[in-house]
Design goal:
The protein has helices at about 90-95, 120-125, and strands at about 1-5, 5-10, 10-15, 25-30, 30-35, 55-60, 65-75, 80-85, 100, 110-115. It has about 130 residues and is mainly β.
């Protein structure tokens, strides 16, 4: 469980193998999975909070790849995107041994995350989705 402005929210969470403090979390609301990632963790990259910043990233596993646009959130100082809970991106995250998140523009460093236990964790998350 992770505290959110509306109270505790069930969250699937993993930390990067590459950078201390970089993480990926998933939450589910109304049939959509919300993906949150700090693309700039451990870097000197500063985001202008007055600028709307959207970054298209690629999520790559040994089972395939998918893209998603992440928007910078001033409230959490992380990047957040949504995808359908029953969509191909969520299925991709439930498969494979590891995940690489990369910014094709090269502004943010690529990071890898373990997907060990992801199928069970995401399954539990989706079962509780309301």
């Amino acid at each position: 469980m992770q505290e959110d402005e509306g109270g505790p929210v069930l969250t699937a969470h993993t930390c990067s193998d590459d950078a201390l403090g970089a993480y990926l979390s998933l939450r589910c609301f109304d049939g959509k999975v919300v993906l949150e990632n700090d693309l700039g963790a451990g870097t000197e990259i500063a985001v202008d909070p007055m600028q709307e910043l959207i970054v298209a990233v690629e999520l790559v596993t040994d089972e395939g790849e998918a893209g998603i646009s992440l928007q910078f959130s001033q409230m959490t100082a992380t990047f957040i995107g949504e995808t359908p809970a029953s969509g191909p991106l969520v299925e991709l995250l439930k498969s494979g041994a590891s995940l690489k998140i990369r910014d094709p523009a090269g502004v943010y460093p690529a990071r890898t995350y373990s997907l060990a236990g992801s199928s069970k964790a995401i399954g539990t998350l989706l079962a509780a989705c309301n």
